[in-house]
Fold this sequence. Notes:
Order of helices and strands: EEEEEEH
Number of strands: 6
Shape: globular
Distance between the termini: 73 Å
Organism: Erythrobacter litoralis
CATH superfamily: predicted glycosyltransferase like domains
Protein name: PilZ domain-containing protein
CATH architecture: Beta Barrel
Strand content: 35-45%
Number of domains: 1
CATH topology: Thrombin, subunit H
Structural class: mainly beta
Radius of gyration: 18 Å
Largest sheet: 6 strands, antiparallel, barrel
Amino acid sequence: xxxxxxxxxxxxxxxxxxxxxxxxxxxxxxxxxxxxxxxxxxxxxxxxxxxxxxxxxxxxxxxxxxxxxxxxxxxxxxxxxxxxxxxxxxxxxxxxxxxxxxxxxxxxxxxx
Length: 112
């Protein structure tokens, strides 16, 4: 048995997205992404080979579920992403803000 080795490099990601399945949609976390697919954290499993659309960073990317196991699934895109689409998805990453009442100078000694 000859195994096919992945060629495209995957970019580690921590992106919010929405996965639209054939009968439902759900919020997902994109763990990594490449020009041909992505690894997602999901709350609801989908069937292998189910047609999906990943909405991420203003991009809508069509594909299928390649594999699915407890809380995670891999998707294969219908078409290779262009560099622009990949960058747009990565640019839509989770925006982290400081907690309410956070002070950047807290705990620093002041000169005097």
